[in-house]
Design a protein that fits this description.
Mean pLDDT: 93
Helix content: 25-40%
Largest sheet: 8 strands, antiparallel, barrel
CATH topology of the largest domain: Alpha-Beta Plaits
Strand content: 25-35%
Number of strands: 11
Strand order of the largest sheet: 2-4-3-11-8-10-9-5
CATH class of the largest domain: Alpha Beta
Order of helices and strands: HHHEEHEEHEEHHHEEHEEHE
CATH architecture of the largest domain: 2-Layer Sandwich
């Protein structure tokens, strides 16, 4: 376990609930001084326990949705794999990219406005790297459930769910888009700095952000912890289910482990993706043994992936 005390863990928990919360608000919730809270936050960033702060958007209200893709390589050298990584990192539509061990070698999210756009991406991707791809699986993301981090401090549960099954083009202008783009990369950017970057009055920016939150375009402000630094393995479990009706109960089960951060409902080979963060294989095996005991008649099969490197974490492209 990393060299973090209870106050550090409480601060990380609060930052994950709302990474835009003022230091005074965080200090009050964790019962410490503003100066201490500010010092601890800066130290958590400096020492790499937190990589960055990002914003979670309801992409469907921006007229976009996700394709989640799994890829298995064939005769790909480390140099060629890096070439694929660099290509995807430079792809504007790539909202998430991770390298993994398991049935597939890589997983990524592509955010698009239509299936035609995804086809254009896929055509170019296969044209460049098709000879290196042994197998691929493509899923449409139907629903995203974002649970709060409880793997360091088990505070009350809070879940944000947003649905991709109805695409809506919200009435946002260029100023809104600039705000969303800046917040996607740094959710904790001070209002004054944000106003300077966009070249607009800070009061206008504050009003616009509140409006985007009220309309459900901005879902939450979260933090990206460094799982390696925290001594946690990032595990993704992908399920093929007998019935979709069991999904809420499965999400509740994994939420109660205090290890689960994301659950994605999918259309494709897999019906549900669960993302958990565990200390070691023994803890993972204990969780899966309990899962099988409870849901033995509810699933067809599942695959376990270990995400050992995250290359892109934006969740939205602009």
């Amino acid at each position: 376990m990393p060299d973090l005390d209870l106050l550090d863990k409480k601060i990380m928990y609060e930052l994950d609930l709302n990474s835009r919360a003022p230091v005074t608000e965080i200090a009050k919730k964790v019962r410490t001084s503003k100066e201490t809270a500010n010092f601890r936050i800066k130290r958590l960033l400096k020492e790499g326990y937190i990589k960055n702060f990002y914003t979670i958007f309801n992409t469907s209200k921006l007229g976009k949705f996700y394709y989640k893709t799994f890829v298995k390589f064939h005769n790909a050298t480390r140099l060629k794999e890096q070439e694929i990584i660099d290509y995807l990192k430079a792809t504007e539509a790539c909202a998430y990219l991770g390298s993994c061990e398991g049935p597939y070698d890589m997983t990524f999210l592509i955010v698009v406005e239509s299936s035609r756009q995804f086809k254009e991406f896929l055509t170019d991707f296969k044209g460049r790297f098709g000879n290196l791809i042994l197998e691929k699986e493509i899923h449409t993301v139907l629903t995203v459930h974002r649970l709060n981090q409880k793997f360091l401090y088990a505070g009350p549960s809070k879940k944000h769910s947003f649905y991709q099954d109805e695409i809506i083009n919200s009435d946002i202008d260029e100023t809104d888009k600039k705000i969303l783009k800046e917040l996607s990369a740094n959710a904790r950017i001070p209002l004054v700095d944000l106003a300077k970057k966009i070249n607009a009055d800070s009061k206008v920016i504050k009003y616009r952000i509140k409006k985007l939150e009220k309309e459900g375009i901005i879902i939450a402000y979260a933090s990206a912890p460094n799982f390696d630094k925290l001594g946690l393995q990032f595990i993704q479990i992908n399920f093929a289910l007998k019935s979709l009706r069991i999904i809420p109960a499965m999400i509740e089960f994994f939420d109660r482990t205090n290890k689960c951060l994301f659950a994605l409902e999918l259309l494709g080979k897999y019906d549900l993706t669960i993302e958990i963060h565990v200390e070691n294989d023994r803890v993972l095996r204990q969780i899966m043994d309990e899962f099988k005991e409870k849901f033995v008649n509810e699933y067809i099969d599942y695959d376990i992936f270990s995400i050992y490197k995250e290359h892109t974490i934006l969740w939205m492209s602009f």
